């Protein structure tokens, strides 16, 4: 029996790690859309550095494409499209626009992204397709090119909590079968996915984490430990912010266990050295678009819809949104003169 085809859209740090996990499984033909590093991956392959999955200097994918349109023109039918690109809800073209050419009636769409609220536009654009959503706790980053070869590094732990964001009126058993097949492929590649029937609660637990550390590090332009040391009010501010987001999630009827905020704070404060950076801080410092809406904007909008008071969250959202605006309009930024 011929292997099924899987497409990974967004070959960054996380995308590179999970493309390699699937490739190492030997179960599927892995194709990738590599927009910024297309030529190096196409011509020279890809490398993975990992204490869990080993170091691989010459990973070769079944197909390397610059765009989804190019992949579609090749006539390949994809069973799954995994989206590991930056989650920008207000981007034009949208994620649905980008992946549309490779979505057939039998394609399952998998989100390997931060934040909350990204499933809704996909359900609207592809109402008959299964949407699988994952919370990624894996440490991953892009490696600098060596010898013209791009790569990714997996560090710390590998963690993936994954579940179906079920369609209204869908055959849940059929959608669960699609999830189970993907999970088996990840396991065959030595990944450790954990399946949940309540993926939205898990996504909101992760956004309690992201809302705090991403916004704080971006605004302060500091890693977490220097921020904690900056004043006696720093850590209490973080707790307040997390508790506000937790309140929104619970108002939505989601399951956020007691002690979640304490656990998430401890996970950060136990980190030595300079503490944690964040992808949002890196994007801000580099002048790139930030994942403001999926990490901060959706919780703010849900708070307003549900009548939950979130003054700290609203303040951070407004400030990070202003930073994002300044990056998009560099002509209005103060240049230090």
Automatic annotation (TrEMBL):
| InterPro entries xref list | 6-PGluconate_DH-like_C_sf, 6PGD_dom2, ApbA, KPA_reductase, KPR-Related, KPR_N, NAD(P)-bd_dom_sf
- This protein's GO CC annotations: cytoplasm
What is an example of a GO molecular function annotated in this UniProt entry? 2-dehydropantoate 2-reductase activity
All copies of domain Ketopantoate reductase C-terminal, residue ranges? 198-323
Q: Which residues are in the Ketopantoate reductase N-terminal domain?
A: 7-142
Pfam families hit by this protein: ApbA (PF02558), ApbA_C (PF08546)
Q: Name one GO biological process term.
A: pantothenate biosynthetic process
Can you tell me which family this protein belongs to? Belongs to the ketopantoate reductase family.
This protein is called 2-dehydropantoate 2-reductase
Per the UniProt record, the source organism is Papiliotrema laurentii
């Amino acid at each position: 029996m011929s292997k099924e085809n899987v497409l990974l859209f967004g070959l960054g740090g996380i995308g590179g790690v999970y493309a390699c996990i699937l490739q190492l499984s030997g179960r599927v033909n892995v194709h990738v859309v590599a927009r910024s590093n297309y030529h190096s991956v196409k011509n020279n392959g890809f490398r993975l550095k990992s204490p869990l999955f080993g170091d691989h200097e010459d990973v070769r994918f079944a197909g390397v494409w610059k765009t989804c349109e190019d992949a579609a023109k090749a006539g390949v039918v994809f069973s799954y499209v995994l989206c590991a690109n930056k989650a920008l809800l207000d981007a034009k073209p949208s994620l649905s626009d980008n992946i549309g050419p490779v979505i057939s009636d039998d394609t399952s769409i998998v989100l390997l992204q931060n934040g909350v609220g990204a499933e809704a536009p996909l359900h609207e654009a592809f109402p008959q397709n299964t949407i699988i959503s994952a919370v990624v706790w894996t440490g991953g980053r892009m490696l600098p090119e060596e010898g013209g070869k791009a790569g990714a590094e997996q560090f710390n732990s590998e963690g993936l909590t994954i579940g179906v964001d079920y369609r209204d009126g869908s055959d849940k058993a059929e959608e669960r079968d699609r999830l189970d097949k993907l999970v088996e492929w990840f396991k065959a590649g030595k990944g450790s996915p954990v399946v949940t029937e309540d993926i939205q609660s898990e996504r909101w637990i992760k956004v309690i984490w992201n809302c705090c550390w991403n916004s704080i590090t971006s605004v302060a332009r500091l890693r977490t430990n220097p921020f904690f040391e900056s004043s006696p009010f720093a850590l209490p501010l973080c707790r307040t912010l997390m508790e506000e987001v937790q309140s929104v999630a619970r108002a939505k009827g989601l399951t956020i266990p007691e002690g979640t905020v304490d656990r998430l704070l401890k996970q950060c404060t136990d980190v030595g050295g300079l503490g944690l950076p964040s992808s949002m801080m890196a994007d801000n410092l580099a002048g790139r678009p930030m994942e403001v809406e999926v990490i901060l904007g959706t919780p703010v909008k849900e708070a307003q819809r549900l009548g939950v008071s979130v003054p700290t969250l609203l303040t951070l959202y407004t400030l990070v949104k202003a930073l994002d605006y300044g990056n998009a309009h560099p002509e209005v930024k103060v240049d230090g003169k």
